[in-house]
TrEMBL record:
Residues 179-199 are annotated as: Disordered. Residues 1-96 form the NFACT RNA-binding domain. Pfam families: NFACT-R_1. Belongs to the CCDC25 family. PANTHER family: COILED-COIL DOMAIN-CONTAINING PROTEIN 25, DUF814-RELATED. It comes from the Eukaryota. It comes from Xanthoceras sorbifolium. This is NFACT RNA-binding domain-containing protein. Residues 179-191 have a biased composition (Polar residues).
Length: 199
């Protein structure tokens, strides 16, 4: 079971979600998205909470809320979560501790918690299928961009070839109509006759 919450549009219209227990946390860790930011109360047993950013956003685009007074909340991008076989269920580490941020929350913000609780929805998502669908969409988008790039490159190549052929053709036309000084002297034509030959 995963609990989903919706932030207000003016706060960024984010999707916020968390697992029911440590087993759902495992699935959320395994099938997260690059846009996910992971939150956890530091040094306390608590839920893993995720905030899904919009494409192009970074961790700097978010603000915080809490249920308890005087706590530290740690957060980091999902891609920074590290899971090893020796870790307990629901336990995570970090690839790069410099990417982990901590915020001290002095006072619980009841209005934020109450508003989020009103948007709470319970679902049993197929996290693996959602991640695979997102991966497939990303691959299709990259493939389309690559195809467009190759088509543009081919069009540019063909245009360069066409321009080279035009220049070559013009050069041949001029070369065929040109007369050397020796030919002029030997034929002793008038200037008007030579102009007519050239035209």
């Amino acid at each position: 079971m995963v609990f989903y919450f919706k932030a207000r549009p003016e706060a960024g219209d984010y999707t916020i979600f968390m697992g029911l227990d440590k087993y759902e946390n495992e699935e959320l860790i395994r099938y997260g998205f690059p846009e996910d930011i992971w939150f956890h109360v530091d040094k306390m047993s608590s839920a893993h909470v995720y905030l899904r950013l919009h494409k192009g956003q970074t961790i700097d685009d978010i603000s915080e809320g809490n249920k308890v007074n005087n706590i530290d909340v740690v957060y980091t991008p999902w891609s920074n979560l590290k899971k090893t076989a020796s870790m307990d269920v629901g336990q995570v580490g970090f690839h790069n501790s410099k990417m982990v941020r901590t915020v001290r929350v002095e006072k619980r913000m009841n209005e934020v918690v109450n508003r989020l609780n009103k948007t709470k929805v319970e679902r049993k998502p197929d996290l693996k299928a959602e991640r695979e669908a997102a991966n497939a969409a990303e691959r299709a988008e990259r493939k389309l961009l690559l195809r467009d790039k190759k088509r543009r490159e081919e069009m540019e190549r063909l245009e360069k070839e066409r321009q080279a052929e035009v220049r070559s053709y013009k050069g041949l036309m001029v070369a065929e109509k040109m007369t050397s000084n020796k030919q002029i002297a030997s034929e002793s034509k008038s200037l008007q006759e030579m102009e007519e030959d050239f035209m």
